[in-house]
Amino acid sequence: MIAKLARFTVRPEEVETCTAAIERFVMAVRAQEPGTRLYTSYRLPDGVSFVHVMEFADADAEALHRQSAHVREFVEVLYPRCVTPPEFTEMRRVAPPPPSA
Question: What is the spatial distance between Cα 47 and Cα 42, in angstroms, rounded to a whole number?
């Protein structure tokens, strides 16, 4: 299992465009990436910063994610609108996830 956190801040005038792109992107990840166990996005209280939390089954699932058309499309929309490039941090699970329903 590979877990990562991505943090980024967008220019205030670009929040609506980026939020719409995030929504499309997350839906594509969920629909097209069975090896991505979790992908969620949060907007922080400052209104311009976002955090994405992702969990991949293995390195192959992460590679499939990184090479997907929806990642390329998302990067094309997001990166030019960011104050600084997204920062990625690998994470290690401390507590087990909740049981599946």
Answer: 10
Residue 31 located in a structural domain: yes
Residue 74, number of CB atoms within 10 A of its CB: 19
Tokens linked to 56 = 């991949």
Quote the pTM value: 0.91
Structural domain contains residue 99: no
Share the mean pLDDT of the chain: 95
So what's the pLDDT on residue 98?
Answer: 79
Dihedral of alpha carbons 83, 32, 54, 45, sign: positive
The residue range of the domain holding 40 is 2-89
State the Cα–Cα distance between residues 25 and 68, nearest whole angstrom: 11
